[in-house]
## 1
Amino acid sequence: MRRPASLELHMKPTPIQKLGENLFIKRDDRTGFLLGGNKIRKLEYLLKEAVDKGFKRVMTCGGIQSNHARATAFAARELGLDVALLLRGELTDRRQGNLFLNSLIGADIRTITSEEWVGKEAIMEKWASELGSTYIIPEGGSNALGSWGYVSALEEIQKQGNFDHIFHATGSGGTASGLLAGRAVTGMNCSLHTINVCDDEEYFKKRIFGILDDFERQFDIKVSTENFHIHDGFVGEGYALASDQLYEQIKSFCGDTGILLDPVYTGKAFFGMQEVIKRENLEGKILFLHTGGAFANFANVERYRF
């Protein structure tokens, strides 16, 4: 097994809190990096490679309110690297949430349409070639190297307790691939459950298993996909589109627990998890990974009712 080097950009271990008799939550919203989130775990490996190879700039892509793009921008600037972001959507004079933060930090932002999004890799390659000395990070930081962020996270969880089931949200597949690889590294035999917040089960099977193929080839580790479940059916109207009911659930959960979910990732995943637990009568200790995303609430304030 070849293990890559990483930077130390976040506070660890993040705590695990008890929510119910057999329900626990891993607080990766408290990684300590600009209100936390899971993206920094992947970026610790990706940015280490960028720095070691002497790049002067990093480039990545995402939706107009991308958590990953914001985390990349701030981590890169902390390391003295310039930032270029390719975002799906439209720029407006009223910039909120992550878009506000990306603008505040001075990221070089270009936007493309949903129709152009299918060619995002080629667009980034061309733009990076024009800029020079640019390290490209894929959407969500989700590739074989970035997967190590959640290999190390599962090693962290193993020291904190034993769990029968681990649930999390997925939008680009990197957290899921990292947890699967983490089981191979740690020997843990927990069931892994991912709830997709966009696309569908078939898309994510192809996406996650493709990342794992690269992971096995690059790092000489055989990864099993047994007891791995993709729970489709909680996307709603689409990516970053949430119902009034979900906003009310997030509000109530925050008031009851002091924990802030978001309408794009963790809200759909947490309440989706609750449905899966009831539907499948899951037993044993269950852990939900809170992967952050608080800033999505600030881009959707008008959807909450007080």
Note: Strands lie at 16-18, 23-27, 57-63, 82-88, 108-112, 134-136, 165-170, 191-196, 228-231, 286-290.
## 2
Amino acid sequence: GIIPTDEAGIQKETVAGLKDRLEEAMAPFTRKGIAFKQLVEHSLLTPSCGLAGVQEEVAILALELLTGLSREMRKVYG
């Protein structure tokens, strides 16, 4: 999961920050020869854990961030 699960962490997050973190997390795999595009094509973007413990508007924000990250990754990597 890429989205923090605490309310403060979610509220501080940006799509650009998530994209940077995701690319950094995938770097060890690409250094081993796995194509980044292949990783992206076979990935599922999720929060780090469930969102049941946060307020509804924060859960909605987390899902909006995931949607934005998905759009950005598709725009950049196809």
Note: The mean pLDDT is 93.
